[in-house]
Each structure stands twice: as C-alpha cells, then as structure tokens.
Design goal:
heterodimer, A: 311 residues, alpha+beta, 12-stranded mixed beta sheet, 33% helix, globular, B: 172 residues, mainly alpha, 8 helices, elongated
Chain lengths: 311, 172
C-alpha cells in the first residue's frame, strides 16, 4: 500500500463520495504539482517540443498524391518554388565561407571523441544507491583504455582499476590480498557486493559513446556567456544486456568539449528520494598527465602484498 | 501557437495527471506523451472549444489505453470522482495564469497554516517523496497512523483550497 495515490484515499473512496474524493484528488494533484516538482513541467514541455521538432525535421518531404490535378495554379506554385530556391541559393552564395553552428549531435560526437582521447582526467563523484545512501570517490581515466577508481569506504580508501590488460582491486585493509583478473565483470560484482555501487561503465568515454545512437538528445540551458554546452539524453529503449541509465545530463566546455559535469540517473531524480533508483554524479577535478604505471595495481599498494586471482 | 496554448494549459494538465496516476514519474511521462499526441492530433481540435479540456481528454484516453496494457496498473480514469476532478481542473483553467499561480501560492499558505504534525507529514510525502514505512519513520508514527495523518492533512488542504477558490471567484 503506497501513500501516493488512490490506495491511500481510504474512507472517502469507500464511501463512494465522488465530490469529496474528487476534491481531495485535486488537492493531491495540486500539492504534488506545487510542492514536489519545481521545473518538472517546463522540462517535460521542452522535452515534448523537442521530440515534436525532431519528428518534423525527420518527416519525409510531402509529395503530390498520384492523380493530383496539375493546372495553372500548380504552374505558378512551381514558379514560386523556383524563385524561393533561387533566392536561397543566392543567400547561400553570399554567406559562403561562414561556419555553420554545429548540430547538437555533432557537438556530442566531438565530446565523445575528446573523452575517448588518451588524456588523463580526474573526476570527483558521488554515487547514490536505491536507499539514498551515498558513496564518494575519485575516478581517473585515460580515455576508454584505463582507469582508477578511489572509493571512500568505512575501512579506508578502496582502489580498483584497469590498466588496459588487467583489472584489479586493492582492498583498504592491508591484510586483505589484492585481487587481479582479466575482465571488468568481477570488479563490478565485487564493487556491487561490497560497496553497493552498481556501475555498467567505469570511464566517461564508455558511457558517452552510448549517447549518439541509443539516446534522444535535447539541449539544456547553458551559461549565457557561451562557455558551456549542456544537454540531456534520455534512453530510447531499455537495454537487454547492460543496465544503462535512463537519463544523462552533460555539461561540457564549449571550446574544448571536455566534460565538466555529468549526472546519470537510472530512473529519474524523484525515484532516488523514493528509495528505488540510483544516480551517479561526476565533476571534473582536472587534467594531470600520469605515468602509465598509475593504472597498474602495483602503483597502489606496497611491494610484497599478497596478490590473488579474482574468484 | 501550439507551444503558447500548451504552456497556458500545462499546469492544469499536470495537476490532473498527478491527481489521477499513483506514480508521479508515470504521470509526468503521460504528461509528455499527451503533448505529443495533441500535436499529432491537432487537426481534430475544434478551436471553438477549450484547449485545456481537449488536452485532458487526450490524457484520459492515454490513461485508459495504459490501463488496458497493464491490468495491475491502478488507473481510475473511469471512476465517478474523475468528473469532479475534471471540474476542479476546469475551474482552475478558467483562471488567468497569473491568478492560477497566485492560487497555487495560496496553496502554500494553506499548508503553512496546518498544525506542525500535518505539515511535517505533507512535506515528508510530497517534498521528500517518502512513502509508507519511510514516511512513518520520519514522523515517528505507525504506518497506519502516518497514512491517516496524510489523508487528514490532504483533506484540510482541500477544504482550505475550496474556501480560497470560492473567495477568488468572487474577486475575478
């Protein structure tokens, strides 16, 4: 029995008093609208209008139906179309050489490419699980090839990573052995089991690479000085194999296309408050060139510590 | 033009769907779907009739179709009280947007005037999104008592709003 809906309307509904129930439902709707969702309506309108616009842009050109009458009017329309085309051509020629503003998709592709380049960047992150519990840490990655996650746990800092060949996990307690393997699945499982951090991706490049083909992209409000490009992405259909998030917000530097902030949500922000979904938020700390050894487990523990294979 | 009509009628549509659908996330999804369906069916809109009522009709049809897809969904689009809800939305819709905004601000006053324990319950539920056990823990009551308190708080707000609504209609 939830508190949010007809189930909790109890006595009024069972009495069949439509007037009272209707008035209470209106109060419920108004409270829900006014207290719980600032900006939700505008966001949804913008998303719907963007979808409508996308449909209109993608719509095939309207062609005359078979048997459509062709007469003097059709001739004059052809002339008008020709004149318009000629005018557009002239304008095009006059403006030749001026760069066109990139489309959002083109901008996102650039952001993906920059994130995948072999540059070392660190992001501070906060992971919020289904119960609203948060875990903080730092993610340092070199494109999509290598990463190190430093996770703050009660026992200390847990480190896990991938150097391009081997995945590894260094537990915070010295007496626990370092674990190494070849894939990321066991690191992921260990993380989910021990720290409840369930991640389908470890580098920004991996997540961003999903956006152009599998998400609907909508521009988000960016800083008015032109230094930021922000957008939202909504997953088109649930993935069968990987638990990709439902929505992604990205804020990037409009000059360098480097991601400054990113927030991924598995089922919308309200659900975190409801205790039913999770989100992951990252903020750029900086770029710092790392030695390649940084991505190996040996960099993160003292020599001689026991190393075992993932079980 | 379509966008202007949508923005003018959005608040009442959102309230309507939030009132109708138990899950706020799904209500918002349906809000968005309603706007897209309205655009696709704009040719069938009779411009001599209120746009807001037409929008809510589309929303209700969408709710019915969702209901058919999922028998477990608690959707009550055909219950008698929905007509009453529609009437309240219609009354709200007749107001100019600034008046409606003012009305919603008065809703806050209605909440502020509630005794502390009711206010805390409404805040916990609507602002923090707490339900059942979590809400009960927040307000230090049993689940049953929390549900009753929430119901009672909502009824008090409803009565306060109706008084406010009657007052504003005299003035407008």
């Amino acid at each position: 029995m939830t508190a949010d809906g007809p189930n909790d309307m109890g006595p009024a509904r069972s009495n069949g008093d439509a007037e009272t129930v209707g008035a209470e439902r209106f109060a419920h709707g108004a409270l829900s609208h006014f207290l719980a969702s600032p900006g939700a309506v505008d966001d949804r309108i913008d998303a719907a209008l963007a979808q409508i616009d996308a449909t209109r842009i993608d719509a095939p050109p309207v062609r005359p139906r078979v048997g459509q009458r062709v007469g003097p009017l059709a001739g004059s329309r052809s002339l008008a179309v020709f004149a318009t085309a000629a005018a557009l051509l002239l304008i095009g020629v006059l403006l030749w050489g001026l760069p066109e503003p990139p489309t959002l998709l083109a901008s996102v592709r650039r952001i993906v490419a920059v994130a995948a380049a072999p540059v070392d960047r660190s992001y501070a992150f906060v992971f919020t699980d289904e119960q609203g519990r948060t875990t903080r840490g730092t993610l340092t990655s070199r494109g999509a090839d290598a990463f190190v996650v430093e996770l703050e746990t009660r026992a200390g800092t847990m480190r896990l990573g991938y150097d391009g060949e081997r995945s590894w996990l260094v537990p915070p307690r010295q007496r626990m052995p370092v674990r190494v393997g070849t894939g990321l699945a066991r690191v992921r499982r260990a993380l989910a089991r021990g720290e409840r951090v369930q991640m389908p991706f470890f580098t920004l490049a991996t997540m961003l690479d999903q956006l152009p083909d599998n998400y609907d992209l909508v521009p988000a409000e960016s800083r008015s000085d032109g230094t930021e490009l922000a957008f939202r992405a909504a997953r088109r259909a649930p993935a069968d194999d990987v638990d990709w998030p439902a929505s992604v917000f990205v804020s990037s530097d409009s000059d360098t296309a480097v991601v400054q902030r990113m927030r991924v949500e598995w089922d919308g922000p309200r659900r975190v408050a409801d205790g039913r979904a999770r989100q992951f938020e990252l903020r750029l700390v900086g770029e710092q060139q790392r030695d390649g050894a940084f991505y190996s487990h040996t960099f993160h523990h003292r020599p001689g510590r026991e190393v075992v294979q993932f079980q | 033009m379509f966008e202007a009509l949508v923005r003018d009628n959005a608040q009442a549509l959102h309230i309507f769907l939030r009132a109708l659908i138990p899950d706020p996330g799904r209500a918002d999804d349906l809000f968005q779907e309603t706007l897209i369906a309205a655009w696709n069916g704009i040719d069938s809109f009779d411009s001599t009739r209120p746009f807001g009522r037409w929008l809510r009709g589309i929303a209700r049809n969408l709710v019915r179709s969702q209901h058919r897809r999922s028998v477990n969904e608690q959707v009550l689009a055909d219950e008698g009280w929905v007509h009453v809800l529609e009437r309240h939305c219609e009354a709200a819709q007749r107001l100019r947007n600034d008046v409606l905004d003012e009305r919603l601000s008065r809703l806050r006053e209605c909440v502020d005037r509630l005794p502390e324990h009711y206010r805390e319950t409404l805040d916990g539920h609507y602002r923090s999104g707490l339900r059942g056990e979590a809400l009960a823990a927040r307000i230090g009551a049993t689940i049953d008592a929390a549900m009753k308190r929430l119901q009672r708080a909502r009824r008090l707000v409803s009565e306060c709003m109706q008084r406010t609504l009657a007052g504003a209609e005299v003035r407008t």
